[in-house]
Amino acid sequence: MKIKKTWVWMVLLLVGGFVSNLWAFEIITADDIRQKIIVNTDLIKTADNAIFLFDSSSSMNKPYKDTGMTRYEVAKKTLMERNTYFPDLGHTFGFYLYTPWKEIYPVQKYDRAKFAKALESLPQKATSATFLTDGLKRLDGVLKKLEGKTAVFLYTDGSDTNQGGGRKKPVAYAQELAKKYDVCFYIITTADDYYSSDLLTRANELNFCSRVIAFDDFINRPGYNSEALFTVKATKKIVTITDKKIVGIKTNNFLFDFDKTDLSADARERLSILAAFLKANPKAFTALVGHTDNTGTEDYNLGLSYKRAESIGRYLVDNFQVDPSQLVLFWFGQLNPVADNETIEGRRQNRRVEILVGGI
Questions:
Q1: pLDDT one-digit tens code per residue, 196-242
Q2: Which of 1, 88, 152, 157 is the most exposed place for a label (fewest CB within 10 A)?
Q3: Which of 189, 204, 230 is the last residue of a domain?
Q4: Contacts of residue 333, Cβ cutoff 8 Å, sequence gap at least 6
Q5: pLDDT for 297-316, tens place per residue?
Q6: CATH number at residue 253
Q7: CB–CB of 221/328 below 8 Å?
Q8: Which of 230, 264, 287 is the last residue of a domain?
Q9: Which residues make Cβ contacts (< 8 Å) with residue 127, sequence separation at least 6?
């Protein structure tokens, strides 16, 4: 499969009639995102390392919807599938069970075949208790060996067998790691309503890049783990005409004034169209990807790019009651410019949020 793209002008047909606004879309078809990722050399790493802390506790044996599979089986299957098309960009990978601690793929350069073999060695069934505190303590020893930025994918339902006895809560250990290392936590939660965890409710306090991701979203939306580790270089485009089934659309960028997150009148009008589309297509979702120019520090721009993406998401939810589960936020600061930052116009083009709609 390959991603096929073509620029066209379209008229959106939404529930209730026509939308007369002509809107530029980049059409993405189902002829396959996977092979495209393999052959595309114009990729930018957004992290240098990926560490997986995987949950093999008995709570993962609960059925996953009507798939006939458990959550544990679905999570394993998803990882195996994504491994088949993950690009070799020189990442360092590590994969560990923390229920209890077991080394599945010790920290080393990512190798697709070796990683596949490691995933195949996972237990057939989830059977153990949840030693989350112990896992986060041991994570310190893993992170101190790494250089550069690390994405930690933590699967958890929020429970912890180790709690009590005066021991610190998992969130305290995570906070210490976030201060000590250049790390982003992607906390993939299978929590049911009766679970309560500081780590889940306070993840956004760790740093700008950490977040909680619902298990359903992580399983159904591959961007959650690909964008955490790499992004497509924005200055190059591959244009191919296809008649394959459309699975996504990409809009023109939303631009922002210098050091601002305010939405323009044009942006608000366009977002009303996007909101109508999302509400008419509840299975669709949109990725909101924030960027900045290179004025200011990298840390400040990372936060600013988050605020820009978040401002669009908040506008869609507050003004049109778009389901928050249809919104996926990413932010890269000044990492991926589309134009020359040495010119006024170039910096204007770089102060943007890109919007990609998928799941159609």
A1: 566 677 776 778 788 888 888 888 776 666 678 887 665 444 444 44
A2: 88
A3: 230
A4: 291, 292, 298, 301, 302, 303, 304, 305
A5: 988 998 899 999 999 999 99
A6: 3.30.1330.60
A7: yes
A8: 230
A9: 56, 57, 58, 61
